[in-house]
Protein backbone atom coordinates (compact mmCIF):
# COMPACT_ATOMS: atom_id res chain seq x y z
CA UNK A 1 0.00 0.00 0.00
CA UNK A 2 1.11 3.57 -0.62
CA UNK A 3 1.98 5.34 2.65
CA UNK A 4 0.91 8.95 3.22
CA UNK A 5 2.78 11.09 5.77
CA UNK A 6 1.38 14.40 6.95
CA UNK A 7 3.21 17.13 8.81
CA UNK A 8 2.86 18.59 11.27
CA UNK A 9 0.67 16.35 13.41
CA UNK A 10 -0.55 19.36 15.37
CA UNK A 11 -0.48 23.02 14.44
CA UNK A 12 -1.28 25.95 16.73
CA UNK A 13 -2.41 29.07 14.91
CA UNK A 14 -4.42 32.25 15.34
CA UNK A 15 -7.37 33.61 13.42
CA UNK A 16 -6.06 35.34 10.31
CA UNK A 17 -2.89 33.24 10.07
CA UNK A 18 -1.78 31.57 6.86
CA UNK A 19 -1.56 27.84 7.48
CA UNK A 20 0.18 25.17 5.41
CA UNK A 21 -0.08 21.41 5.86
CA UNK A 22 2.18 19.02 3.97
CA UNK A 23 1.44 15.50 2.76
CA UNK A 24 4.07 13.19 1.29
CA UNK A 25 3.43 9.95 -0.58
CA UNK A 26 5.78 6.96 -0.45
CA UNK A 27 5.65 6.80 -4.26
CA UNK A 28 4.32 8.96 -7.03
CA UNK A 29 0.55 9.38 -7.05
CA UNK A 30 0.42 11.93 -9.89
CA UNK A 31 -2.35 14.34 -8.80
CA UNK A 32 -4.69 11.75 -7.32
CA UNK A 33 -4.93 13.36 -3.90
CA UNK A 34 -7.82 14.67 -1.84
CA UNK A 35 -7.97 16.78 1.32
CA UNK A 36 -10.68 16.49 3.98
CA UNK A 37 -11.70 18.48 7.03
CA UNK A 38 -13.17 16.70 10.04
CA UNK A 39 -14.75 18.12 13.15
CA UNK A 40 -15.41 16.09 16.30
CA UNK A 41 -18.34 13.71 15.97
CA UNK A 42 -18.84 14.48 12.28
CA UNK A 43 -18.06 12.69 9.03
CA UNK A 44 -15.15 14.10 7.03
CA UNK A 45 -15.87 16.80 4.47
CA UNK A 46 -14.16 16.90 1.09
CA UNK A 47 -12.27 20.16 0.52
CA UNK A 48 -9.92 19.50 -2.41
CA UNK A 49 -9.78 16.78 -5.07
CA UNK A 50 -7.22 16.01 -7.76
CA UNK A 51 -4.64 17.83 -5.65
CA UNK A 52 -5.75 21.37 -6.47
CA UNK A 53 -9.44 21.42 -7.43
CA UNK A 54 -11.72 23.13 -4.92
CA UNK A 55 -14.87 21.20 -4.07
CA UNK A 56 -18.09 23.08 -4.72
CA UNK A 57 -19.14 25.22 -1.77
CA UNK A 58 -15.73 25.22 -0.09
CA UNK A 59 -14.41 28.72 0.71
CA UNK A 60 -11.69 30.02 -1.59
CA UNK A 61 -9.30 30.52 1.33
CA UNK A 62 -8.59 26.79 0.98
CA UNK A 63 -6.19 25.77 -1.76
CA UNK A 64 -4.19 22.69 -2.68
CA UNK A 65 -1.03 22.20 -4.69
CA UNK A 66 1.54 19.61 -5.62
CA UNK A 67 1.98 16.51 -7.71
CA UNK A 68 4.02 13.34 -7.63
CA UNK A 69 4.94 12.77 -4.00
CA UNK A 70 4.62 16.16 -2.28
CA UNK A 71 1.43 18.09 -1.67
CA UNK A 72 0.26 21.02 0.41
CA UNK A 73 -3.03 22.31 1.74
CA UNK A 74 -3.04 26.04 2.45
CA UNK A 75 -5.58 28.08 4.36
CA UNK A 76 -4.86 31.67 3.39
CA UNK A 77 -6.50 33.34 6.40
CA UNK A 78 -7.58 31.02 9.19
CA UNK A 79 -11.16 31.49 10.35
CA UNK A 80 -12.79 30.30 13.60
CA UNK A 81 -14.68 27.61 11.69
CA UNK A 82 -11.40 26.15 10.36
CA UNK A 83 -10.18 24.73 13.67
CA UNK A 84 -10.46 21.03 12.90
CA UNK A 85 -8.43 18.01 11.82
CA UNK A 86 -7.30 17.72 8.21
CA UNK A 87 -6.49 14.55 6.30
CA UNK A 88 -4.94 13.86 2.94
CA UNK A 89 -5.94 10.75 0.99
CA UNK A 90 -4.45 9.20 -2.12
CA UNK A 91 -6.50 7.42 -4.74
CA UNK A 92 -3.84 6.72 -7.34
CA UNK A 93 -3.92 2.96 -7.02
CA UNK A 94 -6.81 0.61 -6.46
CA UNK A 95 -5.88 0.63 -2.76
CA UNK A 96 -6.45 4.01 -1.12
CA UNK A 97 -4.81 5.42 2.00
CA UNK A 98 -5.16 8.38 4.35
CA UNK A 99 -2.51 10.43 6.03
CA UNK A 100 -2.49 10.35 9.82
CA UNK A 101 -4.10 13.76 10.14
CA UNK A 102 -3.15 17.29 11.20
CA UNK A 103 -5.02 18.93 14.05
CA UNK A 104 -5.28 22.71 13.73
CA UNK A 105 -5.66 24.20 17.20
CA UNK A 106 -6.27 27.69 18.51
CA UNK A 107 -3.06 29.39 19.63
CA UNK B 1 -27.70 14.25 -4.96
CA UNK B 2 -26.61 10.89 -3.62
CA UNK B 3 -27.24 10.19 0.06
CA UNK B 4 -25.84 7.29 2.07
CA UNK B 5 -27.70 6.02 5.14
CA UNK B 6 -26.04 3.48 7.39
CA UNK B 7 -27.42 0.92 9.81
CA UNK B 8 -27.48 1.49 13.53
CA UNK B 9 -24.96 1.01 16.29
CA UNK B 10 -23.76 -2.48 17.19
CA UNK B 11 -22.30 -4.07 20.29
CA UNK B 12 -20.41 -7.30 19.66
CA UNK B 13 -18.43 -9.88 21.60
CA UNK B 14 -14.77 -10.53 20.80
CA UNK B 15 -14.41 -13.21 18.16
CA UNK B 16 -17.80 -12.51 16.57
CA UNK B 17 -18.62 -10.73 13.30
CA UNK B 18 -20.47 -7.54 12.44
CA UNK B 19 -22.20 -6.55 9.23
CA UNK B 20 -22.90 -2.87 8.58
CA UNK B 21 -25.10 -1.66 5.74
CA UNK B 22 -25.02 1.50 3.66
CA UNK B 23 -28.10 2.33 1.57
CA UNK B 24 -27.75 4.77 -1.30
CA UNK B 25 -30.49 6.99 -2.65
CA UNK B 26 -30.73 9.79 -5.18
CA UNK B 27 -28.20 8.50 -7.67
CA UNK B 28 -27.10 5.62 -9.88
CA UNK B 29 -25.78 3.19 -7.29
CA UNK B 30 -24.12 0.76 -9.67
CA UNK B 31 -21.84 3.39 -11.17
CA UNK B 32 -20.31 4.55 -7.88
CA UNK B 33 -17.43 3.23 -5.85
CA UNK B 34 -18.40 2.66 -2.21
CA UNK B 35 -15.55 2.74 0.27
CA UNK B 36 -15.53 1.84 3.95
CA UNK B 37 -13.49 3.99 6.32
CA UNK B 38 -13.16 3.53 10.04
CA UNK B 39 -12.07 5.74 12.91
CA UNK B 40 -11.15 4.35 16.30
CA UNK B 41 -11.73 6.63 19.31
CA UNK B 42 -9.27 9.53 19.20
CA UNK B 43 -7.55 8.14 16.12
CA UNK B 44 -7.32 9.00 12.43
CA UNK B 45 -9.19 7.80 9.40
CA UNK B 46 -8.39 4.33 8.10
CA UNK B 47 -9.45 3.17 4.62
CA UNK B 48 -10.58 -0.45 4.76
CA UNK B 49 -11.63 -1.24 1.21
CA UNK B 50 -14.09 -0.49 -1.56
CA UNK B 51 -16.46 -2.04 -4.04
CA UNK B 52 -17.57 -1.06 -7.52
CA UNK B 53 -21.15 -2.37 -7.61
CA UNK B 54 -21.43 -2.43 -11.39
CA UNK B 55 -18.43 -4.77 -11.55
CA UNK B 56 -18.93 -6.54 -8.25
CA UNK B 57 -15.20 -6.18 -7.61
CA UNK B 58 -13.90 -5.39 -4.13
CA UNK B 59 -10.42 -4.30 -3.05
CA UNK B 60 -9.18 -4.46 0.53
CA UNK B 61 -6.41 -2.74 2.45
CA UNK B 62 -3.68 -5.19 3.33
CA UNK B 63 -4.35 -4.75 7.04
CA UNK B 64 -7.88 -6.12 6.70
CA UNK B 65 -7.33 -8.81 4.05
CA UNK B 66 -8.96 -12.04 5.12
CA UNK B 67 -11.08 -10.40 7.80
CA UNK B 68 -13.27 -7.97 5.87
CA UNK B 69 -15.80 -8.63 3.13
CA UNK B 70 -17.45 -5.83 1.20
CA UNK B 71 -20.47 -6.65 -0.94
CA UNK B 72 -23.17 -4.77 -2.80
CA UNK B 73 -26.79 -5.53 -3.65
CA UNK B 74 -27.71 -3.58 -6.76
CA UNK B 75 -31.41 -4.44 -6.39
CA UNK B 76 -31.61 -2.50 -3.11
CA UNK B 77 -28.76 -0.03 -3.74
CA UNK B 78 -27.12 -1.21 -0.55
CA UNK B 79 -23.47 -1.90 0.24
CA UNK B 80 -22.34 -4.05 3.14
CA UNK B 81 -19.16 -4.35 5.16
CA UNK B 82 -18.66 -7.47 7.24
CA UNK B 83 -15.74 -7.67 9.66
CA UNK B 84 -14.98 -10.97 11.34
CA UNK B 85 -12.89 -12.17 14.29
CA UNK B 86 -13.64 -8.95 16.12
CA UNK B 87 -11.30 -7.70 18.83
CA UNK B 88 -11.42 -4.70 21.12
CA UNK B 89 -9.21 -2.72 18.72
CA UNK B 90 -12.03 -2.87 16.15
CA UNK B 91 -14.15 -0.58 18.33
CA UNK B 92 -14.64 2.37 16.03
CA UNK B 93 -17.02 4.46 13.96
CA UNK B 94 -17.40 2.90 10.52
CA UNK B 95 -18.29 5.14 7.58
CA UNK B 96 -19.27 4.36 4.02
CA UNK B 97 -18.31 7.02 1.48
CA UNK B 98 -18.36 7.57 -2.24
CA UNK B 99 -16.81 9.83 -4.86
CA UNK B 100 -19.63 11.00 -7.12
CA UNK B 101 -17.61 13.38 -9.30
CA UNK B 102 -15.48 12.54 -12.29
CA UNK B 103 -12.11 13.28 -10.65
CA UNK B 104 -12.32 11.47 -7.34
CA UNK B 105 -12.38 12.54 -3.75
CA UNK B 106 -15.12 11.08 -1.53
CA UNK B 107 -17.73 13.84 -1.44
CA UNK B 108 -20.63 11.83 -0.03
CA UNK B 109 -20.45 10.14 3.37
CA UNK B 110 -22.80 8.10 5.48
CA UNK B 111 -23.57 9.24 9.00
CA UNK B 112 -21.30 6.61 10.56
CA UNK B 113 -22.04 3.44 12.54
CA UNK B 114 -20.51 2.88 15.96
CA UNK B 115 -19.32 -0.65 16.53
CA UNK B 116 -18.31 -1.51 20.07
CA UNK B 117 -16.46 -4.76 20.76
CA UNK B 118 -16.63 -5.72 24.39
CA UNK B 119 -16.92 -8.84 26.46
Keywords:
heterodimer, A: 107 residues, mainly beta, Immunoglobulin-like, 7-stranded mixed β-sheet, 4-stranded antiparallel β-sheet, 11 strands, globular, B: 119 residues
Largest interface: A-B, 26 and 24 residues
How much of the sequence lies in strands of chain B comes to: over 45%
Largest sheet of chain A: 7 strands, mixed
Count of DSSP-assigned helices of chain B: 0
Estimate the helix proportion of chain A, in percent. under 10%
CATH superfamily of chain A: Immunoglobulins
Tally of contiguous helical segments of chain A: 0
What low-confidence regions of chain B span 5 or more consecutive residues with pLDDT below 50? none
Topology:
The complex is a heterodimer of chains A (107) and B (119).
Chain A: E1 4-7, E2 10-13, E3 19-25, E4 33-38, E5 45-49, E6 53-54, E7 62-67, E8 70-75, E9 85-90, E10 97-98, E11 102-106
Chain B: E1 3-6, E2 10-12, E3 18-25, E4 34-39, E5 45-52, E6 57-60, E7 68-73, E8 78-83, E9 92-98, E10 108-109, E11 113-117
Keywords (chain A): Adaptive immunity, Cell membrane, Immunity, Immunoglobulin, Immunoglobulin domain, Membrane, Secreted
InterPro entries (chain A): Ig-like_dom, Ig-like_dom_sf, Ig-like_fold, Ig_sub, Ig_V-set, IgV_Light_Chain
Protein name (chain A): IGL c3502_light_IGKV1-5_IGKJ1
Describe this structure as you would to a colleague.
The complex is a heterodimer of chains A (107) and B (119). Chain A is an all-beta fold. Chain A has a single domain (4-106), classed as Immunoglobulin-like (Sandwich), CATH 2.60.40.10. Chain A has strands at 4-7, 10-13, 19-25, 33-38, 45-49, 53-54, 62-67, 70-75, 85-90, 97-98, 102-106. In chain A, strands 2, 4, 5, 6, 9, 10 and 11 form a 7-stranded mixed β-sheet that branches. Chain A has a 4-stranded antiparallel β-sheet with strand order 1-3-8-7, with no helix packed on it. The N and C termini of chain A lie far apart (35 Å). The mean pLDDT of chain A is 97. Chain B has 119 residues and is mostly beta strands. Helices cover 0% and strands 50% of the residues of chain B. Chain B has no helices and 11 strands. In chain B, the strands form 2 sheets. In chain B, strands 2, 4, 5, 6, 9, 10 and 11 form a 7-stranded mixed β-sheet that branches. Chain B has a 4-stranded antiparallel β-sheet with strand order 1-3-8-7, with no helix packed on it. The A-B interface holds A 1, 32, 34, 36, 38, 43-46, 48-50, 53, 55, 85, 87, 89, 91, 94-101 and B 35, 37, 44-47, 50, 59-62, 95, 97, 99, 101, 103-107, 109-112.
Amino acid sequence: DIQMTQSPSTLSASVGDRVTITCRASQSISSWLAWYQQKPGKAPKLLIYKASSLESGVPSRFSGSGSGTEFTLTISSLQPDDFATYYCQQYNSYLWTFGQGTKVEIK
Amino acid sequence: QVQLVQSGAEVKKPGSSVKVSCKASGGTFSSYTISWVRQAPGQGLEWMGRIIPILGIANYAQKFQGRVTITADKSTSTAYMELSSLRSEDTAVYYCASPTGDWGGMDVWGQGTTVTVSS
